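Fold tokens
===========
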Amino acid sequence: MNHEEKLELAYQKVVEQVNKYGSFQKLNPNFIPDREKTWKAIPTSTRIEKSLTNLIGTKRKREKYWKNMSSLAGIWYDETIYHSSPRSFMYAYRNLVGTNIVTSDMIYLRELGANIVPLDYTVRDTAPKTAHTVFRTHGLGFRHYPKNETASNVLRAGVSTGKYNDTTQMEAIFYDTAIDNPGPKSVAQCRYLEALSEVFFEDSDEGLILQIVAQLNVDNPHDIQEFKTAMVFSFCEVIPISRWDKELYDRELKIYGDELLFPLLLKPLSANVARQKIGLIQDLGKDIDPTKDPYEIRTSSLDLNLMKKWNYLGIQSSRQTRKELQDFIDKHSPLCAHHDDACTKSCNGMTSKNFHVGHIVSQSWSKSYRVFQESVHHPDNLYLSCSSCNESLGKGGPSRKVLQYLNDNFLTIGDLIRKKYLE
């Protein structure tokens, strides 16, 4: 599935949600979510569908949407230096937002790893046009990118200035899509972000990201010109509704009636993980032109324990691990990666008795360039072939045709882990 097909599939997923919501509204025309602060006016399915169509209803609009997302990722990357640690951000978001705090609270936040961004008084009430898109005023709600474009713009950040008391999982927070966002566009954008996370990360628990900001009001005796408002933020991973645990889903369904109105469930990330995610978003953007970059990008990383078990040295040293590879070959009968390769000897077929684990970037090449030494034995650099083909490579690596075959059919050892063929 190419990049545009994934963008369209995510779009269709949201269309299905909107249609389901339309049926819900017909049965419950006077429904209001059961919470203290909620929608000023419940958006109709017709208005949400119109917003969705205006946002990403055509191939051109979806391409523009992702171009904006990729461009925003470059800005996000530069802002990771201001990112707060997950622990400090969770504390601020859950305990301090919407209250008046004192300097000792700020000191504690710093000790937890927060990067505090103060708001100058000249912008915090009435920001000039040149002020930063996010760190600009007391205002709350979503910020968009590009800020002067309404068509196909993306969610840049969510700014929270009021306590949100719903309890969620220990490592996650809610960001409400309703408060001070009465229009239907925010609903369409939030659900599309979730759908993209499902499509791009279908074989993992990972997702795309969103910048979430906690605004803090500092109660001090200084003049108005001094710092009285500050922000801390975290890049958070989107957890699609389909991956919520049942208890959480059922509880929110009671409150909101239909999942289209659900808040976003988000997991604060460390700065290093956020940078990796941001880099991935930029790489996915390049995938739109398959002629320039024919290999599909793998969006999910591998668990550290799995990397240790399935790296080359782990496979070579463990009879049990090799036995699992033999069982996979006996059960699924995969072809040798070189079965149609003019660059090796004529292939006689791969069995559980004659298979080899080969390297895409060869071991001999990696010895010459230290940059490859940490990754040469990584599962994503390993693949299965028959012994005859592997030995005929000598000290070289597989041909481009073999690389395309491995990528198209998800046949590196890392891919077999992602596809749950290997535990």
